[in-house]
Write a structure and sequence with these properties.
This protein is an alpha+beta fold and 84 residues long. It has one domain: Glutaredoxin. Helices cover 33% and strands 20% of the residues. The protein contains 3 helices and 4 strands. A 4-stranded mixed β-sheet has the order 2-1-3-4, with helices on one face. α1 runs parallel beside α3. The chain is globular and about 40 Å long. The model has no long low-confidence stretch (mean pLDDT 97). The structure holds glutathione. Glutathione binds next to α3.
Length: 84
């Protein structure tokens, strides 16, 4: 199970598209960047630069940020969309 911390932005959409494509089990937690949710202390623990998207692996408790890095992580984790 994954938790995607996101707002409705292109960088966040990249991750939700990937999660849908690989049929991952996930839920979305809204971080309303218009209201400044990204600056809350709780969120900063998983996003040191106060940016969305962030993906948390609920099984390991680990969180990942930077949309490109998240896409590579998911591709490796599910062994899809990667060669070599
Ligand atoms: N290089 C980062 C960019 C992340 C980014 O700029 N996120 C924006 C929304 S798409 C954000 O969180 N903005 C809120 C802010 O800067 O306060 C990535 O690809 O994840």
């Amino acid at each position: 199970m994954f938790e995607l911390f996101a707002d409705d932005t292109p960088n966040a959409r990249k991750i939700s598209i990937m999660l849908e494509e690989i049929k991952a089990d996930y839920k979305v937690t809204l971080i309303d960047i218009g209201k400044g949710d990204q600056f809350k202390d709780e969120f900063k623990k998983i996003s040191p630069f106060n940016k969305i998207p962030v993906l948390r692996n609920s099984q390991t408790g680990q969180s990942y940020f930077e949309s490109g890095a998240i896409l590579i992580y998911l591709a490796n984790y599910f062994n899809q969309f990667m060669e070599g």
